[in-house]
Amino acid sequence: MRDKAFMRNLTGKNGFSLVELTIVIFIISVLVSIAVFSFRNTEVIDLRTCQSNLKILDGAIVQYFLNENSYPGGLDELAPKYIKTMPKCPTDKTKSYEYDSEKHEAICPNGHSYP
To answer: Alpha-carbon dihedral of residues 56, 61, 63, 65, nearest 10 degrees?
Structure first.
């Protein structure tokens, strides 16, 4: 009786087969590759968000000029009439956008610009 139990363990009926282990490793590798791709893609998303914020701020500057017949002294003059809240660059949310009074445009503190 004891020999039958020992032989059952040697034949591998209590463990996982090589096919089952291969499938599990494949599934884990697919999940890891998806996670790596999504984390790498956040830089592009942050850049596009910043470019969109700059376009919105520049549009608000133009609206201010059309209504007031002069350019604003700073971006803080745009809120809340021309823009609901002042956005921040998603790359570093501690820094606010700056205003170039010579070019009359918003500038990203992290050096982003839109084409």
So the answer is: -170
Return phi, psi of residue 85, to 5°: -135, 155
Give the residue numbers spanning the domain of 54.
49-107
Asked if residue 100 is part of any domain, the answer here is yes
* pLDDT tens-place string over residues 5-25: 555 555 556 677 888 888 999
Domain count, the chain: 1
Structure tokens, 37:
């791709």
In a domain, 70, yes or no: yes
Question: Is the whole-model pTM more than 0.85?
Answer: no
Burial tier of 106 (Cβ tally within 10 Å: 0-12, 13-18, 19+)? buried
* 47 Cα distance to chain centroid: 8
pLDDT in tens, 29-39: 999 888 877 77
20 lies in a domain? no
